[in-house]
Specification:
Helix content: 25-40%
Strand order of the largest sheet: 6-4-8-9
Largest sheet: 4 strands, antiparallel
Order of helices and strands: HHEHEHEHEEEEEEHHEEEEHHHHH
Shape: extended
Strand content: 15-25%
Distance between the termini: 16 Å
């Protein structure tokens, strides 16, 4: 435990870009102890350029381990985090803004230590001539408190029978269970097809995660599902059109790749943009040596063909032309004070005890001599006395963080 904690403290984000695939391959090559299933925890604050390869690698080894993923910050890839967790029967969490990481990590640890619901299947009782087709794959496992949503499509001619039944069968701790559910075969009159669109989204997501999603047959299915349901896919997109013109757009739409501007760390100035118009940058500004012209999307046909860019009265100027603007230097981040709770938890041994030493005295805000002098008896093991003091401090000074304390004491 001491070696693992020391290793974690010495680690830093100093290896360049996010590289997960090779790390996972190395992990999967290592042997596991018999009777101890492998649990993989992935923490990342970025994205990778080979998301599908990473998910496929996790999928190939999903019978040997479970994968739990954490996305930290706004830049974490949603597709990567959710994809690897689903591929290996784990869970995923996102930590953004000022959210604290510890409660979500501890919740995931609880999942990794508990037995799971396995062998999940659905058994249908339907009228003659009616069948059910699953649109999403049943989960291989379900954790306690976890929600799993399945979509199915009912096909066939419905006559006088109005109700049907589906049974959720599963295994938990080597014991079989059945949960029957009756449902109506007739949709509600005021249904807005929201469930249908969610089902289509699930279908499109499953297709995108497959390795064979480049064939013409699969592409046609993606297009058909997306256009019929009104759900965007990897091959479709919503296009904004200016309806005020009241004129149809002639000809095919053209794609325009808008390069991202490279700004220096200094103030910028902008002038004269018409209100309410969508604006997109159309210059690269290699070193901000020239004024940058901004463009607006215009749905009116240019040259009788397609969507084009029309210039707007907006200019960005290089601020080096303003002598009174001082060079901007970003403020240095203030050091973050160490969390007393985490400082104390880091001193806890693998057997749950604490050592009576100077490090513990510092974490508790006292002196080692004072703790030793208040030991109720010479025959009391110093580790026992140190553990008693630590537990008392945990419950008296961190009452609002009982979820974290409960996992450590």
């Amino acid at each position: 435990m001491d070696s693992a904690v020391g290793k974690a403290k010495s680690m830093a984000a100093d290896l360049g870009g996010t590289e997960i695939l090779q790390v996972l391959k190395h992990i999967y090559k290592q042997g596991c102890k018999p009777g101890h299933p492998r649990q993989v925890f992935v923490f990342t604050d970025g994205e990778v350029g080979n998301t599908k390869e990473v998910i496929s690698e996790v999928q190939r080894h999903n019978s040997q381990h479970r994968c739990f993923a954490f996305g930290i910050g706004e830049g974490a890839s949603t597709a990567l985090i959710k994809g690897i967790a689903r591929a290996a029967n784990g869970t995923f969490e996102f930590i953004t803004g000022k959210e604290r990481m510890q409660p979500k990590v501890l919740r995931t640890l609880k999942c990794s230590l508990q037995p799971v619901v396995k062998d999940v299947t659905l058994k249908w009782t339907l009228p003659s001539g009616v069948e059910a087709t699953l649109l999403s794959h049943p989960p291989n496992s379900i954790f306690r408190g976890q929600r799993s949503i399945l979509y199915a499509q009912i096909n066939g001619k419905i006559t006088n029978v109005t109700d049907a039944e589906v049974s959720l069968d599963y295994t938990f701790k080597d014991e079989s269970f059945k949960n029957p559910l009756q449902f109506s075969l007739h949709p509600e009159a005021e249904s807005r097809l929201m469930i249908h669109r969610l089902a289509a989204k699930s279908v499109l997501r499953d297709i995108d995660e497959r390795d064979d999603n480049v064939s013409e047959e699969v592409k046609k299915r993606i297009l058909d599902t997306s256009l019929q349901s009104g759900v965007v896919s990897s091959l479709t997109a919503f296009i904004a059109v200016n309806k005020d013109l009241k004129q149809p757009i002639q000809g095919p739409m053209l794609r325009r790749n808008i390069p991202m501007p490279m700004f220096r760390s200094m103030p910028m100035m902008a002038y004269g943009a018409p209100m309410g118009m969508p604006v997109a940058s159309a210059c690269s500004m290699p070193a901000m040596q020239q004024p940058c012209l901004m463009y607006c999307m215009d749905a009116s046909p240019v040259g009788g063909s397609a969507l084009e860019m029309q210039s707007c009265d907006m200019l960005l100027y290089d601020d080096s032309s303003f002598d009174d603007v001082a060079e901007y230097s970003p403020p240095k981040p203030e050091p973050v004070p160490e969390d007393p709770l985490l400082k104390l938890i880091a001193l806890q041994k693998a057997d749950g005890s604490w050592e009576l030493d100077a490090a513990l005295a510092s974490a508790l805000g006292t002196k080692e001599e004072e703790m030793t002098s208040k030991n109720p008896g010479k025959d009391v093991d110093p580790k026992v006395w140190a553990t008693v003091l630590s537990v008392i401090w945990l419950h008296s000074s961190s009452a609002d963080r009982q979820e974290e304390i409960g996992r450590h004491t």
